[in-house]
Amino acid sequence: MTKKELWEGIRDAFPIVLGYVPLGFAFGILASEAGMSVVQATAMSILCFTGAGQYIAIGVMKAGGAVATAVIANILVNMRYFLFATSLVPFFKDNVPGRWATLLSYGLTDETYAVAFNRYKKKPPTTSYMAGLNITSHIGWISSTFVGALSGSLIANTDKIGLGFALPAMYTCLLVLVISKRTELVVALVAAALCLGIGWVWPASMHNLFNIIIATVVAATIGVIINGKC
User: Fold this and answer.
1) What residues does each domain of the chain span?
2) What is the pLDDT of residues 84-124, one digit of tens each?
3) Residue 166: what pLDDT?
4) Which among 171, 176, 212, 206 has a CA at the least distance from the CA of 194?
5) Is 34 helix (H, G, I), strand (E, B) or coil?
6) Which keywords does this chain's UniProt record carry (predicted)?
7) Is the distance from CB of 205 to CB of 63 less than 8 angstroms?
8) 3-state helix, strand, coil in the chain (%, to 5)
9) Of the residues 2, 85, 152, 216, which has the maximum number of CB atoms within 10 A of its CB?
10) What span, in angstroms and rounded, lies between the C-alpha atoms of 201 and 199?
11) Residue 205 pLDDT > 60
């Protein structure tokens, strides 16, 4: 590993961590309200590391749902990471050893993917950069969860202090970073329109599970067609 690229990965992770802090903090509070201990909430962030999936699991717990329901919902929501990981393979295969790529890809999230993909269009990926970016982001999520779980019921309503807007704000910033040409803008607009359309046609319990996957596949296909690659 090279120190220079390790620090570049850590540096690029800082904006992600700033977005994770309020989200992880809010998750820790909600996990505490759902009856989870500090250790359980923190362990969930260590082992799962999926903000959307963890929030879904907490919602199922608070509603008295079965464990199987939370597991199935998480599998469906997180299927998008299969697409993310697949799109990174051409970058990794000649630059990062397979064992390291597999291990460090555990830290693949929407945010680390966006930042990494934007960099890999200009520079080849390295083990050092992946480690700095993914591990720093994971530590930020774990730490904020721990602090939120410790806080317990001190903050009853996270929406009142704007924590609920942290996730869409972070996604918007990341989207702006990765759009560099007209095709990418078209793909982003199509994906957004599909998500909104599915949300309007289907009830919330259905579209929350499928809209991301459907929008991703359809919008990406349109992008490939526009580029004349199929």
Assistant:
1) 3-166, 179-230
2) 888 888 888 878 888 888 888 888 888 898 898 888 888 88
3) 58
4) 212
5) coil
6) Cell membrane, Membrane, Transmembrane, Transmembrane helix, Transport
7) no
8) 80, 0, 20
9) 216
10) 6
11) no
Residue recorded with tokens 């994770």: 20
Q: Is the pTM of this model over 0.90?
A: no
DSSP 107: G
Amino acid letter, 151: S
Torsion angles phi and psi, residue 65, rounded to 5: -75, 170
The amino acid occupying position 204 is A
| pLDDT tens by residue, 37-51 | 999 999 999 998 888
CA distance 104 to 23: 22
**CA atoms of 142 and 140, how far apart (whole Å):** 6
Query: Whose CA is closest to 19, among 47, 45, 51?
Result: 51
Report whether 215 contacts 195 (CB < 8 A). yes
pLDDT value at position 133? 92
